[in-house]
């Protein structure tokens, strides 16, 4: 019986979020919080593997108390249990500190029930780094299979998984030992509609919540802002593109005018 853990994150809906023109920061209050779309596909794939091979799907997230809503959404999709690590000590974490904290939580989960497979979304839409999944795999010393867009087979008895990894010009077939970690593309599956029993279960469900003190062998210097070597000093919206210019006149006049415009912008081509 497989034990699959999907690592997820609650993020602001970037289709709606606005920038604060005074502070040049994201106004998170301007957009609703949602389950990261890539992570939704990770949970969907975990649930499909559970139905195919049998097993249990757990979800894990790090975030403030409202992130419980993201776990409930995963329960709607078919996950069996949820875990959240929430503590001010985790605040301000970059991808390095986040992967460290999640690894410590995964180690605690594995002591209760050994983990065969970890599935993460390719990236989060509020960061776009794609670093947390591979970071977890490195810390756990398990193979990371990134950009997975098809799971061919997961064989727990023989201890291997076969997947397709998306490439720019096609895909490659990769076989890996278990346990391992996948980061998945959006085109790996289509999200299923949540059945009513799952929705009722999710509404009542309360995940297991741990603080930093509940995790074992934690080096607090590697948590949160203290454990984050990278800092986002400024975020700003790009300037709106200028409107196009229509050239008029004879062909020679248009060519001359175009050359003049190009020469004025020659620094763009240097």
Structure description:
- The chain has 270 residues and is an alpha/beta fold.
- It has one domain: Rossmann fold (3-Layer(aba) Sandwich).
- Helix 3 crosses helix 4.
- It is globular, with a radius of gyration of 23 Å.
- The termini are far apart.
- 33% of the residues are buried.
Q: Compute the number of strand runs.
A: 13
Architecture (CATH level 2) name: 3-Layer(aba) Sandwich
User: What's the CATH class label?
Assistant: Alpha Beta
Helix segment tally: 6
Question: Which strand order spans the largest sheet, edge to edge or round the barrel?
Answer: 11-10-9-12-8-1-6-7-13
Terminal residue distance: 59 Å
Name the helicity range. Answer: 25-40%
CATH topology: Rossmann fold
**Mean of the pLDDT scores?**
92
> What is the string of helix and strand elements?
EEEEEHEHEHEHEEEEHEH
Question: Into which percentage range does the β-strand content fall?
Answer: 25-35%
> What is the CA-atom radius of gyration, in angstroms?
23 Å
Largest sheet: 9 strands, mixed
Number of domains: 1
Structural class: alpha/beta
Helix/strand layout:
Elements: E1 2-8, E2 10-12, E3 18-20, E4 25-27, E5 33-35, H1 37-53, E6 55-62, H2 68-77, E7 81-85, H3 95-112, E8 117-121, H4 132-140, E9 144-155, E10 160-167, E11 170-177, E12 180-184, H5 196-204, E13 208-210, H6 251-264
Helix pairs in contact: 2-5, 3-4
């Amino acid at each position: 019986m497989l034990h699959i853990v999907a690592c997820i994150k609650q993020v602001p809906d970037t289709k709606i979020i606005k920038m604060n023109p005074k502070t040049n920061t994201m106004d998170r209050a301007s957009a609703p919080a949602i389950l990261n779309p890539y992570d939704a596909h990770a949970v969907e794939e975990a649930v499909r593997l559970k139905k195919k091979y049998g097993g249990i799907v757990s979800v894990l997230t790090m975030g403030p108390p409202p992130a419980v809503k993201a776990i409930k959404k995963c329960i709607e999709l078919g996950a069996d249990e949820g875990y959240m690590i929430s503590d001010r000590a985790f605040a301000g974490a970059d991808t390095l500190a986040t992967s460290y904290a999640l690894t410590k939580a995964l180690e605690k989960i594995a002591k209760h029930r050994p983990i065969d497979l970890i599935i993460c979304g390719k990236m989060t839409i509020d960061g776009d780094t794609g670093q947390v999944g591979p970071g977890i795999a490195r810390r756990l010393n398990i193979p990371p299979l990134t950009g997975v867009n098809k799971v061919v087979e997961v064989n727990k008895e023989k201890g291997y998984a076969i997947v397709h990894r998306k490439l720019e010009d096609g895909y490659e077939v990769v076989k890996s030992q278990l346990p391992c970690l996948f980061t998945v593309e959006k085109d790996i599956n289509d999200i299923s509609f949540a059945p009513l029993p799952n929705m009722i279960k999710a509404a009542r469900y309360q995940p297991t919540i741990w603080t930093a003190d509940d995790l074992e062998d934690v080096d607090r210097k590697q948590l949160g802002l203290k454990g984050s070597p990278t800092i986002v000093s400024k975020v700003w919206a790009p300037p709106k593109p200028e409107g196009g210019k229509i050239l008029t006149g004879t062909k020679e006049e248009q060519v001359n005018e175009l050359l003049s415009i190009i020469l004025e912008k020659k620094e763009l081509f240097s």
